[in-house]
Amino acid sequence: MRYWYYPGCSLKSNGRAYEESLLAVFRELDVPVRELDDWNCCGATTYMSIDEVQAFTLAARNLALAERASREEPDGIPQLIAPCSACFLVLTKTQRYIEQHEDLARRVHAGLWAIGLEYHGEVRVRHPLDVLVNDIGLPRIAGTVKQRLRGLKVACYYGCQVVRPFPTFDSAHNPTTMDRLVEALGAKPVQWPLKTRCCGGTLIGTIRDVGLRLNQILLQDAARRGADVMITVCPLCQFNLECYQREMERTFHEPIRLPVLYLTQLMGKALGISDYKLGMRRLFVSPTPVFARLEGGQAVHA
């Protein structure tokens, strides 16, 4: 099965480490992925409030491109992987609304037709969590691990978009796919009720004190529960939680120094992929001391 990869804007910019580690992990697991040619921005979640029809048409163009690419290289149902939580949400929402709202569908199809594209609802939008757990499978991933991360306590942060409002592959209230992947790597997911609480999204750029406080609550609670690292699958969440820790310390007068990695970086570490290929150098809060402690005696090599 071939997967088409839709990076979206974030994975080509501030989320570059996500792209690097995701593709490295897929190569290690022998998962065939190919970047979708000529993809465009999904419009993120904000464009819907400016012009709904244009926003849906913008997102639908990517779905139409995936269908066309799959017709040229037939390989079953088109599978489009969208790693960014906002992209995954927008593309899934676009599919649902086109299916459920006849007038909107007519206008979106007209817009696509004007640029020589058609969309027939054949694409299956997938998140990497879904692919890793349900297609590749936990036994295969566990069997590929070269360094079991035994002794590592991990706070799995899903954020508010990857399973809400469309829980296509996991529970909207208590998602567990990331936790199960962590266990397959030999690490221990901490019990953490805040794993789907919003980080505030763009609030750090608009109402800064509120945005900082929302992220500080998440980090402090994860640390109190014994987490050595936090992992996420959302570029904006990762950016908010990691890059403003110094400012949170100055604002709230409480020390915060918790590495925030992408899930795929943690997976890559367990699979024996080099730090360079995983984009570890791009992190603001280095996880090196944590991994060094494991390698110093607590980690068990497979």
Question: What features would you describe in this structure?
Answer:
- With 302 residues, the protein is of the alpha/beta class.
- Helix content is 46%, strand content 10%.
- The protein has a 4-stranded parallel sheet.
- Strand 6, helix 7 and strand 7 form a beta-alpha-beta unit.
- The chain starts with a strand and ends with a strand.
Keyword list:
10 strands; single chain; 46% helix; alpha/beta; 302 residues; 4-stranded parallel β-sheet
Number of strands: 10
Q: Looking across the biggest beta sheet, what order are the strands in?
A: 2-1-3-4
Shape: globular
Cα gyration radius (Å): 20 Å
Mean pLDDT: 93
Helical percentage? 40-55%
Task: Please specify the SSE layout and strand pairing.
Layout: E1 3-5, H1 16-28, E2 33-35, H2 52-72, E3 79-81, H3 85-100, H4 102-114, E4 124-126, H5 128-136, H6 138-144, E5 147-148, E6 153-157, H7 177-184, E7 188-189, H8 208-224, E8 229-232, H9 235-243, H10 245-252, E9 260-262, H11 263-270, H12 288-298, E10 300-301
Parallel strand pairs: 1-2, 1-3, 3-4, 6-7, 6-8, 8-9
Antiparallel strand pairs: 5-10
Helix pairs in contact: 1-11, 2-3, 2-4, 3-4, 5-6, 5-7, 8-10
